[in-house]
Amino acid sequence: MTTRRLALFDLDHTLLPLDSDYQWADFLARTGRAGDPDEARRRNDDLMEQYNRGELTAEQAAEFMLGLLAAHSPFELAAWHEEFMTQVIRPAFEARPRELVERHLAAGDLCAVVTATNSFVTAPIARAFGVPVLIATDPQYLGGRYTGRIEGTPAFKEGKVVRVNQWLAGLGLSLADFSESFFYSDSVNDVPLLEVVTQPVATNPSPRLRSIAAERGWQVLDLFDHMEDSKS
């Protein structure tokens, strides 16, 4: 067994006090880039409620969220994402989550962001945190455009475990090769990955995850004074 440590971070409501997927869709709606703005907001809110209840499937999320990507050219999307980072994401960065990530990086831990939100939305955010590896739900890209479908296994619920194991296997490693493995997450949807690391950390946890953490003796870490999106 190596003495190296592994640190995995969920993104939305864990490192960020908001849901980047929800905020991206809201950003497109309020800037007139998501078709019918009222309908887009309604669907966005419905998906968030399903996610908070632990009832959302990756396919249900993809139909709407990845459909937003498929409706536009990559050139347009890239320009809009720069606006999104400037107006929504960077102003939401807080000191304590950044310090948490920086401590793991400074210690030489192998670090990755592991998020269900698609990689188009989250890749620039992971880079802004300085995390070198992103494991996210990948939108299919063919013929120079997004198709609106998922490529491979979505990084969602049990899929996060699958994707982490695939990534480590590609490095010739497994979870058992680390002296300690951390996963920081706010969501009950992430219980499958929290269960397989040596140091599960319920971070800014939803009430349901906070209850599970108390039952199982998991560490609880609160990094934010408030949350910008609703969470249950």
Q: How would you characterize the overall build of this protein?
A:
By secondary structure, the chain is an alpha/beta fold. The protein has a single domain, classed as HAD superfamily/HAD-like (Rossmann fold, 3-Layer(aba) Sandwich). Helices cover 46% and strands 19% of the residues. Strands 4-3-2-1-5-6-7 form a seven-stranded mixed sheet. Helix 8 (191-194) links the parallel strand 5 (180-185) and strand 6. Helix 1 (20-30) runs antiparallel to helix 2 (37-52) and helix 1 (20-30) packs across helix 4 (74-89). The mean pLDDT is 93. InterPro entries: HAD-like_SerB, HAD-like_sf, HAD_hydro_SerB1, HAD_sf. Catalyzes the dephosphorylation of histidinol-phosphate to histidinol, the direct precursor of histidine.
Please give the share of residues in helix: 40-55%
Class by SSE composition = alpha/beta
Helical stretch count?
9
Low-confidence stretches: none
The topology string of helices and strands comes to EHHHHHEHEEHEHEHE
Gap between N and C termini, in Å?
Answer: 39 Å
- Highest-level CATH class: Alpha Beta
Give the neighbour order of strands across the main sheet. Answer: 4-3-2-1-5-6-7
The tally of structural domains comes to: 1
CATH architecture: 3-Layer(aba) Sandwich
Counted beta strands? 7
Q: What is the CA-based Rg, rounded?
A: 17 Å
EC number: 3.1.3.15
Enzyme class: hydrolase
Organism: Bordetella genomosp. 5
Family: Belongs to the HAD-like hydrolase superfamily. SerB family.
